[in-house]
Structure to design on (475 residues):
């Protein structure tokens, strides 16, 4: 899940916004501009939610909304002689989004490269050859997502597992939708008990509010959060075999080495953040260079490799192998980059800029003020998770940290848990959900996820109750 944390170090963009809204001395939350911005953002999200029926790409409405909101902000701040503050906030948001964009671009490029080298085809073939039915595959991909996401990151883990599900599921839309929901819930839950699992956990850890080992107190609540909806949803997954024929899949040259380079890239990103405190995206871009140099190596050594394989095929009189060699094409890393899910990347831009604009207008600060001065902290922390499903957990968590409420360790762990898993309630509530809507376009949708929200909410409530019971002494 470190990827999401990295991915969202950019979303820390809102870090500046709430503060700047205070520095301006302007209360725009009850102004015409403020109300208009809220309406525009709400309408844009309604169009995003209706993507399945409108066949309108989700990036389009939020891109337009972001432009209109910031145009209005520009006019107001210019009239008040504080345009420099608005420009600084805008530039900060753009910088943070650039980190997100580049981070995701590298992750998606590696995933596309692994798909082109037929790794997912081979994994699908292995699963079919093992005789796994749809229900077993449902559990296998979910469990892998839960335990891999705290290390790799929820976004990358979700994309990898989704690619496998898409390969195995074929035209079975019902299975793909349920499996993707399961992956999103598992990936988000898996990141909640690790300081590196989510940007929200990282923020709390870096603030010194929860120690590294204290996060492990959230393991069982996180597991409950995943298992409750998974058990219920699995009852609706048939035990039938996938409608695929088992076949031998020959990996393309360099497939396994690309996996190794991807792991090395993640390690590089972690190292940049842990050792020199640079944004992890710098390490990810360095990792892209690994793939580019390896692509250069594959292209330059292709003729020699083909000749060697042809000699072996002729010696074995393997005509099929000779035919396969005739279709081999050089590896092109830039072609892999072009296959990134650009609709998802642009959607992130729109959301980041819209939320940044609303934060600059002061709305996040108002919400946080009400929650932690008028409500019981436990209920406020539970609402943080609900809000994170609608807006985004990063700006919400930042607003909480900015308020610096007097909370016990148990409450800091609670808000860490709810902010991390609350995004699973809606498909647009987390990076994993948004990315999978693009990766499984038309098969995993907002409304397809929404139908199972009551079940996911049951897991959300169960995890909170579990935390209150097991860690009650920390409150």
């Amino acid at each position: 899940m470190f990827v999401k944390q990295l991915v969202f170090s950019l979303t820390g963009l809102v870090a500046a916004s709430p503060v700047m809204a205070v520095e301006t001395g302007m209360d725009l939350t009850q102004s015409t501009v403020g109300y208009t911005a809220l309406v525009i953002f709400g309408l844009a999200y309604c169009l995003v939610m209706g993507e399945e029926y409108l066949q309108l790409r989700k990036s389009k409405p939020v891109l337009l909304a972001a432009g209109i909101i910031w145009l209005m902000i520009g006019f107001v701040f210019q009239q008040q002689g504080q345009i420099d503050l608005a420009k600084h906030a805008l530039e900060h948001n753009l910088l943070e989004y650039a980190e997100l964009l580049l981070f995701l671009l590298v992750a998606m490029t590696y995933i596309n490269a692994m798909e082109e080298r037929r790794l997912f085809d081979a994994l699908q073939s292995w699963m079919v050859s093992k005789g796994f039915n749809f229900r077993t595959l449902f559990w296998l991909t979910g469990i892998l997502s839960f335990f891999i996401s705290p290390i790799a990151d929820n976004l990358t883990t979700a994309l990898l597992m989704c690619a496998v599900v898409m390969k195995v599921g074929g035209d079975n839309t019902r299975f793909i939708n349920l499996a993707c929901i399961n992956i999103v819930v598992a990936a988000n839950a898996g990141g909640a008990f690790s300081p590196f699992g989510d940007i929200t956990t990282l923020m709390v850890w870096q603030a010194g509010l929860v120690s590294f080992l204290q996060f492990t107190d959230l393991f069982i609540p996180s597991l409950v959060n995943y298992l409750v909806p998974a058990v219920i949803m699995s009852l609706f997954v048939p035990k039938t075999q996938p409608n695929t024929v088992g076949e031998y899949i020959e990996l393309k040259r360099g497939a396994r080495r690309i996996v190794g380079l991807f792991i090395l890239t993640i390690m590089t990103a972690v190292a940049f953040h842990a050792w020199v405190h640079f944004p992890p995206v710098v390490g990810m871009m360095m990792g892209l260079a690994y793939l580019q140099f390896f692509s250069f190596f594959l292209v330059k050594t292709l003729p020699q490799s083909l000749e060697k394989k042809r000699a072996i095929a002729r010696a074995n009189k393997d005509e099929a192998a000779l035919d396969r060699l005739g279709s081999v094409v050089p590896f092109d890393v830039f072609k892999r980059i072009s296959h990134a899910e650009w609709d998802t990347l642009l959607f992130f831009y729109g959301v980041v800029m819209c939320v940044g604009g609303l934060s600059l207008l002061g709305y996040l600060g108002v919400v946080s003020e009400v929650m932690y001065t008028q409500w019981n902290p436990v209920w406020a922390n539970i609402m943080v998770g609900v809000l994170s499903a609608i807006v985004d957990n990063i700006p919400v968590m930042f607003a909480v940290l900015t308020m610096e409420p007097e909370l016990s360790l148990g409450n800091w762990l609670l808000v860490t848990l709810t902010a991390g898993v609350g995004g699973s309630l809606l498909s647009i509530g987390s990076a994993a959900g948004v990315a999978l809507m693009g990766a499984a376009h038309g098969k995993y949708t907002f409304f397809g996820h929404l139908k199972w929200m009551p079940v996911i909410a049951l897991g959300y409530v169960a995890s909170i109750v579990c935390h209150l019971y097991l860690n009650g002494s920390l409150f």
Remarks:
- Confidence is low (pLDDT under 50) at residues 1-25.
